Amino acid sequence: MSKAFDDLTIADDYMFCTVMQDKSICTAVLNMVLSRSIGAITDITYQKTFNQLGNAKGIRLDVLVKDDRGSVYDVEMQTTNQQDLAKRLRYYQAVLDVSSLEKGGHYTDLPHSFIIFFCPFDYLNRDLPIYTFKTICSEDTAITLPNGVTQVLINSAAAHKAADPELKSFLNYMNGIVSDSPLIRKIDEYIKTLKENEERRKEYMLLQAFEMDARKDGIQQGIQQGIQQGKSIGLAEGARKKAFETAQFMKQANCDISFIAQATGLSEREIGYL
């Protein structure tokens, strides 16, 4: 069952994504994880959807960040261990790369990319608080392939082993422990303020209703088809129908068009016709 709005923490997808839309917090978190100073953030997109061509699987990124150096950052809060993170990282990387290079573009135009998963579990079972991966040479591990790809898994279950005090405080915060770290105090106050915002509460309730109804409608329609292909079609058609219904309701509630598009997966042009 979905959490009540007042019970949400930084470890919940909606709250994490909302908090990370604050540029100062987002910058501080990325600097902390990467142990470097990123460029000035130029764009933060919440729940960015990539619908691939043909029958390829589409994805929805939690928080997509771009900075003035041209780097892109996909930041995810992964609350459940579905045993597929390694392959998911591989696919997310592929989608990011394809979406970053326009037709006729040169491979050198590909931006430096960082995919970061925050997890309350240890996917690799090595008891490290942070796992950072780059492409290295098997024959000589001192040689790194300069492909601009960095992938990071964060494990809050090993918060006690974090050497960096700021990272340790953040991982403990994911686990429900509030410290006196300036960053944690700022995030905690931000969340408290969000919980007093009725518009945010309404957004969360609409999102929960949309996801629940879309799942229910899609499954029911798929079952009626009776075959696997019918199930897939039913899920897609049911979800799209519900997306239009939800978008219309959100538009009547005077929600921002860009937020409606992010929440439903519809284009702003489609929403404009409603």
In short:
Helices cover 46% and strands 16% of the residues. The protein is built from nine helices and six strands; from the N terminus they run ααβββαβββαααααα.
The percent range for helix content is: 40-55%
Which strand order does the major sheet show?
Answer: 1-2-3-4-6-5
What is the count of helical runs? 9
Shape: globular
Low-confidence stretches: none
Order of helices and strands: HHEEEHEEEHHHHHH
How many independent structural domains?
2
Number of strands: 6
> What is the radius of gyration?
20 Å
Tell me the fraction of residues in β-strands, as a range: 15-25%
| Biggest sheet details | 6 strands, mixed
Structural class: alpha/beta
* Gap between N and C termini: 31 Å
Average residue pLDDT:
87
Question: Overview of this structure, please?
Answer:
This protein has 274 residues and is an alpha/beta fold. The chain is 46% helix and 16% strand. It has nine helices and six strands; from the N terminus they run H-H-E-E-E-H-E-E-E-H-H-H-H-H-H. The chain has helices at 13-19, 23-34, 85-100, 165-174, 182-195, 198-225, 228-252, 257-264, 268-272, and strands spanning 41-50, 59-67, 72-77, 113-119, 130-133, 149-155. It has a six-stranded mixed β-sheet, with helices on both faces. The two termini are 31 Å apart.
